[in-house]
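Chapter summary example.
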Amino acid sequence: MTHRSKDALLDLMTAKTVVDLGEVREALGNASRATAFRWLAQIPHISSYNHNGRFYALDLPDRFDRFGLFHHGDVRFCRDATLAAAVVRLVQETEAGQTQRELQDLLRVRVQPFLLAGVRRGAISRQLFDRLFLYLHADGEVQQAQLTRRQALIASAAQQLEVPDAVVIEVLLLLLHQPGAAFADVVRRLGRRSPPISSAQVGAVFSRYDLDHIGAKKGGP
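The structure predicted for these 221 residues follows.
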């Protein structure tokens, strides 16, 4: 019988970076699935969050990028125990919150079920922002900071944007009639117009006329 040891698995996973269960079983002398899992549990390892979790890699801290992710080819891993936990963490840690599209582009898998589950159990929150749901930290203070940062990013991108006079008039008229309206309020209300006015256009008007203090009157957007 082939001698089984943790070193055999460590050597395999160091040499190949990513392995599947068949390779683990072979390294352990054609061990059964149950035996292979018992030996895997004895070494620090992670399972892929795509490909139905069928790939494994050593859990090495310096392997992850600034988002707590790493990939090998099309096999993807996160530092979290589950993909659901990774989705919540990324929403909580991101300075400006996350949209579904942003998270999906980052993780390269479908994330909507995990976002909705996180909202339902109160781990994260969401707000309608520029006709899209923006997912945010559940803590009100952190959430406000994320919204403020999102607004700043939009305003920065909008500085180079040419805004028609008609759009400027629409924004200023809304603020004239509703002087307490914050940036996010303006985006929501004008986004319903036909044609809709985008957050980038609203941000450009706020930047041009130095209107950011308006949001502060209500505690931010």
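To summarize the output: Residues 144-217 form one domain.
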